[in-house]
């Protein structure tokens, strides 16, 4: 890794992966690095060594490190207690210092958000929400952050008012890889937009029929030759459609912006478009970096 002298270092530390960016004072990304050493693979004493392995060459001038994500969970490096909504997505005063032994390291961790009723939590997404507010000043509307655990957040006057989580991505992985449905999806290689649209429509019209619709995928594969591509696409449509049915109070008649990976955001945008919602789309990494920049030392982050 090239020797660099960043003004500060941005870190997004999730359950499965660790990502870091060397940042210039004007917000330019000087370099980036990633590692498979996510929170879920580390004991508490393993976080500092894992970070040093990734960013060691960037630490000559002891730049501050600002981190978000599961690194601040109860099982992470140090717990950063949740902040209760309604509140701004980030608060510099809520940063928690991680214990370090290397004198070059000064690591601050952003807390997540919590909601008492209905009970819900987020870690990492609050930083992306803060990034949206920096990139789109005065934003008022709904943010959808699709992923393993999709989040829908109502944002108004610079605050997260409420949010709701759906386990759509995790359900898709479990059903397509570990359930009986996996047999009909082996060898899937492409998209089938028509099958996806059918799944979305079926789920939105009768979300209570999800369980029966799911088994129909297996049955159609056995007796009607449903292709693996169509089965996988319809499963995706059924699950996203069921999510949209549950999240309808968030998106109906609202300004909606999607923040996530390109392909997944495109699927959500397609499903919402069928309901008359023209969702905006933003890059998740851009939003994460903009949010972390809001927490960087005032003298270091571009304003």
How would you sum up this structure in a few lines?
The protein is α/β, with parallel strands linked by helices and 303 residues long.
Could you characterize what this model shows?
It is a single chain. Helix 3 runs antiparallel to helix 6. It is globular and about 65 Å long. A six-stranded mixed beta sheet has the order 3-2-1-4-7-6, sandwiched between helices. The protein has a five-stranded mixed beta sheet with strand order 12-11-10-13-14, sandwiched between helices. It has helices at 47-55, 125-135, 168-178, 193-205, 210-223, 228-246, 248-251, 262-273, 284-293, and strands spanning 8-13, 18-23, 29-35, 65-69, 83-84, 96-97, 107-109, 113-115, 120-122, 141-145, 150-156, 159-166, 256-260, 280-283. The protein has two domains: 8-123, 2-keto-3-deoxy-galactonokinase, substrate binding domain (Nucleotidyltransferase, domain 5); 166-284, 2-keto-3-deoxy-galactonokinase, C-terminal domain (Nucleotidyltransferase, domain 5), CATH 3.30.420.310. The two termini are 28 Å apart. The chain has 303 residues and is α/β, with parallel strands linked by helices.
């Amino acid at each position: 890794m090239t020797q660099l002298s960043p003004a500060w270092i941005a870190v997004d530390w999730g359950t499965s992966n660790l990502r870091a960016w060397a940042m210039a004072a004007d917000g330019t990304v000087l370099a980036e690095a990633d590692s498979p050493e996510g929170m879920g693979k580390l004991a508490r004493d393993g976080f500092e060594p894992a970070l040093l392995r990734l960013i060691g060459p960037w630490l000559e001038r002891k730049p501050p490190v600002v981190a978000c994500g599961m690194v601040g969970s109860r099982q992470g490096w140090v717990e950063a207690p949740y902040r209760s909504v309604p509140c701004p997505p980030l608060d510099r005063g809520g940063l928690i210092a991680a214990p370090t032994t290397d004198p070059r390291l000064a690591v601050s961790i952003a807390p997540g958000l919590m909601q008492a009723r209905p009970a819900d939590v987020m870690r990492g997404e609050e930083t992306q929400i803060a990034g949206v507010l920096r990139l789109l000043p005065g934003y008022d509307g709904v943010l959808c952050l699709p992923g393993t655990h999709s989040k829908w957040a109502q944002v108004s006057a610079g605050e997260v008012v409420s949010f709701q989580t759906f386990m759509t991505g995790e359900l898709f992985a479990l059903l397509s890889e570990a359930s009986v449905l996996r047999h009909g999806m082996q060898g899937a290689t492409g998209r089938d937009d028509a099958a996806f649209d059918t799944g979305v429509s079926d789920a939105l019209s009768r979300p209570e029929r999800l369980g029966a619709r799911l088994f129909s995928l297996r049955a159609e594969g056995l007796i009607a030759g449903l292709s693996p591509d169509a089965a996988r696409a319809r499963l995706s449509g059924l699950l996203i459609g069921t999510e949209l049915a549950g999240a309808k109070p968030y998106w109906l008649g609202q300004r909606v912006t999607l923040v996530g990976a390109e392909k997944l955001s495109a699927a959500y945008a397609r499903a919402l478009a069928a309901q008359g919602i023209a969702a905006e789309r933003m890059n998740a990494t851009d939003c994460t970096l903009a949010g972390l920049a809001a927490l960087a030392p005032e003298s270091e982050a571009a304003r």
